[in-house]
From TrEMBL, chains A, B:
UniProt entry tagged with the keyword Nucleotide-binding: yes
Name of encoding gene: proS
The protein, known as: Proline--tRNA ligase
UniProt keyword list: Aminoacyl-tRNA synthetase, ATP-binding, Cytoplasm, Ligase, Nucleotide-binding, Protein biosynthesis
A GO molecular-function descriptor: proline-tRNA ligase activity
Family: Belongs to the class-II aminoacyl-tRNA synthetase family. ProS type 3 subfamily.
Enzyme Commission number(s) from the entry: 6.1.1.15
Top-tier EC class: ligase
Record's catalysed reaction(s): tRNA(Pro) + L-proline + ATP = L-prolyl-tRNA(Pro) + AMP + diphosphate
Pfam family, one: HGTP_anticodon
PANTHER family: BIFUNCTIONAL GLUTAMATE_PROLINE--TRNA LIGASE, PROLYL-TRNA SYNTHETASE
């Protein structure tokens, strides 16, 4: 029933988790199925993903990468080749044991990520420094056997891209790792209006099999953090496990230096939790499947529908434009498209037509503007631009207001116990023992050591020993 | 080693299967992996798929369909809901029995196709005739546990799109089924330059769970047929199994009428086997990742490289243009890009620059043309257009020359025994017994009952009983 849209959703401040579930289902982003922990991505949700994907795919290609497709299945023996990797992933993979009626002689896992498949392939196709760099990417589904799941944020299966590259030197690989992190940050900030902190993961939190991991971290409305994209320097760990050697410029055999990096459907969860409000979803204009929704007012009156059809035709050459000419009441339509977070609603009735104007309503602020038909494209273009900017500004302000400094453990603990924890900036000695202790005592985990380091104290917030780095801590999704 | 490109590949007429394997690997479309029966789709192969996918996705959207994404896994109990469907697919699905360390209480199959997942979802979201039609599509990977596999043609895992739609009436569903078959035929003929026969499958060959199946069939260079796309009218089979009911225009509860239709990476195999020759791949211009490859001649001479860089910049606004300025010899480059089937090679050396001309070489005919720089874009545009047309004409002529008529079983059997069987047009009584007998005796299977029926005889070619329909028969991939 379309009538669902006028039911009130749970208030964010009352129960954020419930609010989230209400939004993803009532805005028709996803539906549940009988497959535990998996989601059906419905047309509106998938159209958002397609827009994100196109933006990212363009940037991946512009930076010289080529798309490929690797098999879904990984033989158990292949997954075992890199020790840290198998240890990290074995507990969370799905195993295929039968094909048709026959039992397999070797189990196949459903890829949780594809380092080992790329490793095996790179061994075959890389021989000389002339073959480097190799810059591959794939768009794929992956499976991780999660116990508790939530749409977009943590699902048994998710969609992503995974980049896998090979380089001559450690420095080249590091440059690539940083470059792709910046691409992810750019997608988040410029396209999704989500500000991110760029930094390095601790040893504990790095990718299984990596030398080190870079990450972008964002802050949700409820003060919890979300890892929004990671980029790994793999060093020669996989190269040694798979024998990916090349004749270098000096004629000697060297192992390649590798990277991998991934960005997933999870980011839609971030978009919801950063921009959404009590009326539902708020979709940034640059990825909105519909940027402008036209709602005729008093559409039974002569000329109104014809006018809106013409207007749609005119506007859709510049904007992704919708028109709802159904017989539902305008108020119901308003609620529906507010729930779906469409950036601009355009209302037009007989009086507007007479006065050669339309009414534009911003989803982000609720502001209503009567504007002349003359120059309408430019007006809408400016408005969409303003909305996009406003969303980023508001999200940045929210993050700043919820970023705290802790110079001692009491302050840290107190902040972690607040209902809205936010980011806690605190110094750390670099010792895993302190990292584990902080998590145990406060529930906050290390999110990253930001690229932009500050020295807010000389001592580790936990043990008082000499501080090694500033760390962003938070409770996280 | 790039040097591989000058090694001669197997001659088509000597060993077509070996020729095919040589082409797919040496043109760098695919590589093998340690995953039995699966393929790595390499950058060149994947770029071709992306171009096909974009063309098809545009048409799917233009005809009003929306993309969604369904789970990869199907619980065994869900797959069993439609009897014919489970019987058809059970022998060829992969089963997941373990997640992490734990054994599952119910096995999950890796989707071989997604009718049952769509069925379950449609039951939840369709209530009234106002909700119809529902026109969904998904791009996905699917798995079928094939015993013998060949790149693109038959692989354990393949990529495809699968459309799934719901309608109010049988007629609406039939219109949809025909419409999507025509879209597939259009992609084959207009984009891939592969002529197809449109028709209906026999009961024996229809999709497991369908009322009937429409198909497009194409003929390969070796005289074998390839099913190139299918579109199924599902009737209310799945609707009844899943309880997909709606309140119709008369206020009564009715079951929806459904369709499903799929188009796969297999079509790349068809493209190879229809257009390829003894020098390798021939890629139709409309899907060629590189349409024009510039090869500098005597590139060490002053001005040549600069000229080609400029030329590339100029041409790439109109065409997908490559430039090979590596230090390999031009002859090696010619071989490489002939192997890869790039439609037009553009050679330019010091003399050409002086004479304000370039040399264009067509991949399809080998014809060389010295053409003036003046008006080059138009010349190339015309040439690409001619190549595209020529490929379709040649393929159509080949098919016509290899389409035979059999009015009696001896003639049928003799033709089926020819090295190049081709299509055999023969009348059929409609009885499964004859269809099975023909296959057993001749190796030919019924490909389709073409939409354009002819009456070439009154009697079934097998049993002499009254003929029911003209059938295209062939040995098939």
């Amino acid at each position: 029933m379309k009538g669902n849209f006028v039911e009130k959703i749970t208030n964010m401040e009352d129960d954020f988790a419930k609010w989230y579930t209400d939004v993803v289902t009532k805005a028709e982003l996803v539906d549940y199925s009988s497959v535990r922990g998996s989601m059906i991505i419905r047309p509106y949700g998938f159209a958002i993903w397609e827009n994100i994907k196109n933006e990212l795919d363009n940037r991946i290609k512009e930076t010289g990468h080529e798309n490929v497709y690797m098999p879904l299945f990984i033989p158990e023996s292949l997954l075992q080749k890199e020790k840290d990797h198998i240890e990290g992933f074995a507990p969370e993979v799905a195993w295929v044991t039968h094909g048709g009626e026959e039992e397999l002689t070797e189990r196949l896992c459903v890829r949780p990520t594809s380092e080992v498949l790329f490793g095996e392939h790179y061994k075959d196709i890389i021989h000389s420094y002339r073959d480097l760099p190799k810059l591959y990417n794939q768009w794929a589904n992956v499976v991780r056997w999660e116990k508790t799941t939530r749409p977009f944020l943590r699902t048994l299966e998710f969609l992503w891209q995974e980049g896998h590259t090979c380089h001559e030197t450690e420095e080249d690989a590091d440059k690539e790792t940083v470059q792709m992190l910046r691409v992810y940050a750019d997608i988040c900030e410029q396209i999704l209006a989500i500000p991110v902190i760029k930094g390095k993961k601790t040893e504990k939190e790095k990718f299984a099999g990596a030398r080190y991991t870079y990450t972008i971290e964002s802050l949700m409305h409820d003060g919890k953090a979300l890892q929004s994209g990671t980029s790994h320097h793999l060093g020669d760990h996989f190269a040694k496990a798979f024998g990916i050697q090349f004749t270098d410029r000096n004629g000697t055999q060297s192992y390649v230096q590798q990277t991998s990096w991934g960005f997933t459907t999870r980011i839609i969860g971030a978009m919801i939790m950063v921009h959404g409000d009590d009326r539902g979803l708020v979709v940034p204009p640059r990825i909105a499947p519909t940027q402008v929704m036209i709602i005729p007012i008093a559409q039974h009156k002569e000329g109104v529908l014809d006018f809106t059809y013409e207007l749609k035709k005119q506007l859709q050459t510049s904007f992704r434009t919708g028109l709802d000419a159904s017989d539902k009441k305008p108020g119901w339509k308003f609620n529906e498209y507010e729930m779906k977070g469409i950036p601009v609603r355009l209302e037009v009735g007989p009086k507007d037509i007479e006065q050669k104007q339309v009414v534009l309503v911003r989803r982000d602020t609720g502001e209503k503007l009567a504007v002349p038909l003359d120059g309408l494209e430019q007006t809408i273009a400016n408005l969409l631009h303003n909305i996009q900017e406003n969303l980023l500004t508001k999200a940045t302000e929210h993050r700043e207001a919820n970023t705290h400094i802790a110079r001692d453990f009491d302050t840290f603990k107190k902040q972690a116990n607040e209902q809205k924890t936010g980011f806690i900036k605190a110094m750390w000695c670099g010792d895993r023992v302190c990292e584990d202790f902080i998590k145990e005592e406060t529930g906050a985990t290390s999110r990253c050591m930001p690229f932009e380091q500050e020295k807010i104290s000389d001592k580790c917030v936990c043990c008082d020993k000499e501080a090694d780095a500033l760390v962003y801590w938070a409770k996280a999704y």
